[in-house]
From TrEMBL:
It comes from Parasphingopyxis marina. It comes from the Bacteria. This is NADH:flavin oxidoreductase. It holds the Pfam family Oxidored_FMN. SUPFAM superfamilies: FMN-linked oxidoreductases.
Length: 366
């Protein structure tokens, strides 16, 4: 059995203080009718905090009426009623000793699920998209300024509410990532360009606006990915040098922690080095990073003798990487859907009691 103690050492970067290294990954649950998080939503997050997660990152939350309009059951982070109920979620999580960071989300040109929901919704950075991505309405400068303002005021609200941090969703092919990616960003104004540094301008301006509103000491986490929902093989950065050109300006603008989304944490990011995306992001920025991707999903995690050839090695590998400080925090997604007590059980060495992830559990909010 691997020694999981490293996962339970406290974390601090001077701004964010966590009781351990385990982060609940952001997961959309479609349970907030009309964008208002319910008591069930508060209980759902409370259970994971009771289960000894260190930091809860919420599901993506809409920053304004145009942003999360893919589905009206995605929670808003604006409007009196939604914010009032978010305050209850924050109190519930804090009462169990965990910290919370709302994930600010703008879907950009993703197709909406509900055609009645406040059209026009498909704002894109460019209006020009790759095959299979729905065409959107290009953002003009006024729309860009308005969207940056919506991010900044939502971030300010997270601070006012007493959250431990705010996370910006810059991953997976949504709005911010649509600017990063050369396939979707075909702008020929200062928000586009042939280099990732040029295409990062929108994100950099957004981070700067947030930083100026929340002050120096409030932690900003930035979630990024190479993969996109329409293209798992995509890469914004082909080389470590491009990764640095992409992330260093974001760190300069005020990002404190990079949350590096991979589908499998053990996959090397660039040829010639075993470092994963979180490892590289830390190396090129010097900032703490969060890794994620299939931690705790394997059968071998539940029974180390069952299929050691598949997953025992990656879990040992996770701990070895943590020990080498290649990254600082470990996010858990699906395993926490099925077992809210995941962290507590791992800490107590009760991995034999873990409830395995079952996709059917996505249908209920437990
Ligand atoms: C996700 N993921 C995700 N990511 C994100 O940045 N914002 C989000 O709102 C969501 N929503 C979401 C919903 C559901 C149902 C799943 C399963 C996933 C991705 C998630 O945060 C995480 O990166 C992946 O699930 C990989 O981690 P695991 O599940 O392998 O531990």
């Amino acid at each position: 059995m691997a020694d999981f103690r490293l996962l339970f050492e406290p974390f601090s970067n001077g701004k964010l203080n966590l009781r351990n290294r385990i982060v609940m990954a952001p997961m959309t649950r479609y349970a907030s009718a009309d964008g208002i998080p319910t008591k069930e939503v508060a209980d759902y997050y409370r259970r994971r905090a009771e289960g000894e997660v260190g930091l809860v990152i919420t599901e993506g939350v809409g920053i304004d009426r145009r942003s999360a309009s893919r589905d009206p059951s995605v929670p808003n982070f604006f409007g009196r009623r939604a914010l009032e109920n978010w305050r209850k979620v924050v109190a519930a999580v804090h009462s169990c000793g965990a910290e919370i960071a709302p994930q600010l989300w703008h879907v950009g040109a993703s197709p909406p699920k509900d055609p009645d929901w406040d059209e026009p919704v498909r704002e894109s950075p460019s209006g020009i998209f790759g095959e299979g991505i729905e065409r959107g309405q290009a953002m003009d400068e006024a729309a860009i300024a308005g969207t940056i303002e919506a991010y900044a005021s939502a971030a300010e609200e997270t601070k006012r509410m007493g959250c431990g941090a705010v996370e910006l969703h810059g991953a997976h092919g949504y709005l911010i990532d649509q600017f990063f990616w050369e396939v979707t960003n075909r702008r020929n104004d200062p928000y586009g360009g042939s280099s990732i540094a040029e295409r990062s301008r929108f994100a950099v301006e957004t981070v700067k606006a947030i930083r100026s509103r929340v002050g120096e000491n409030f932690p900003i986490i930035f979630r990024l990915s190479q993969w996109k929902i329409p293209d798992y093989a995509a890469k914004n950065a082909q080389t470590p040098q491009e990764l640095e050109q992409w992330l260093a300006p974001l760190a300069d603008a005020g990002v404190d922690i990079f949350h590096c989304s991979q589908r499998r944490f053990w996959e090397p990011e660039f040829e010639g080095s075993p470092l994963n995306l979180a490892g590289w992001a830390k190396k090129v920025t010097g900032c703490p990073t969060i890794t994620v991707g299939s931690v705790g999903l394997s059968e071998a995690f539940l029974d180390p003798d069952a299929r050691p050839e598949i997953a025992t090695a990656p879990l040992d590998d996770l701990l070895a990487r943590l020990e080498r400080e290649e990254f600082d925090l470990v996010a858990i997604g699906r395993a926490l859907i099925s077992d809210p007590q995941w962290a507590r059980k791992v800490k107590a060495g009760q991995t034999n009691l873990l409830i395995p992830y079952n996709a059917a559990d996505l249908q209920r909010l437990y």
